[in-house]
Known about the structure:
Elements: H1 9-15, H2 17-36, H3 46-95, H4 109-128, H5 140-145, H6 158-162, H7 168-175, H8 180-197, H9 203-228, H10 233-259, H11 269-290, H12 303-317
Amino acid sequence: MHSGHHYSLKEVLFWTRREIAAILVLGLVPTLLYVGLGWRWLAMPWVPIALVGTASAFIVGFKNNATYDRLWEARQIWGSVVNVSRAWGVLVRDMVDPAPPDGSGFADARQQLVHRHLAWLTALRYQLREPRSWETTTQPANVEYSRRFHVAERETALPDELQRYLTPADAAYVLSKKNRATHLLGLQSRQLKVLVDDGALEMFRYFELTRLLTDLYEQQGKCERLKNFPYPRQFATVNLFVARVFVFLVPFGLLQEFDKLGAHFVWLTVPFSALVSWIFLTMERVGESTENPFEGSANDVPITALARTIEIDLRELLDEMEIPAALQPVNNILM
């Protein structure tokens, strides 16, 4: 997530410089042929090209609206994760009686339940950062821009992170599973049942806590839906093809229009066709970069920072002394 006022013009031009070079060449070649060799037949009427541009504008606008909805839905889901996590911490602290933990390394069962929840957050964000074939982080421009910030899930290993919150037995069990987050919630449910059987948790309070676990399962499922089901490829394909067809036609339509102003004005075809094409291609790329809100790009929902905020809140609820610092943006990018 970009946390500054806006992307600078320098950043945007750096991000799209390959497209800029291509459309400048695309505008220059027909202009040279039109002026130098007298190939007047290259000029095309502007009206049909404008119709293609209108269609492209509608399609690009539709895609950007749809991809923004995906991004905003992801942010709402993680807003719910924050709220339910805080509720979990408070209810565990106040409703669960002091009881021995299920393993060593914790003061009591309440601390273990809270720390296992932090492990769930960790496992979930690692799962959401796993690459998918349709994501865009491997594109050259995105790879270059990613050097300006850090994706924690790609710099540290999940086992090292989980051992901060789990007993060795729990960590080994969870790491043997494919969907680690799901099984961590399963361990939470199992321990709540043991606490009920031991008399450390009343049945009514047990139902309240299991309701929160069900809510966490629901939020996890929503995240997985966005992660594993991309913006439909048929729409993305049509959007890309129509935009490129329009960009290809623009300089041929502008040749005749600028030639009407005078012989030398025809060279304005190069900068103006590049400008028009750049606007459409950049809008298409903006929509593409917003499609996948968990892929690890500069426009992601900052799930790492949100998980750290939750950890700070829950550790403070337990009056722990070792409180991690909140994550800060790197070059205005917060992950």
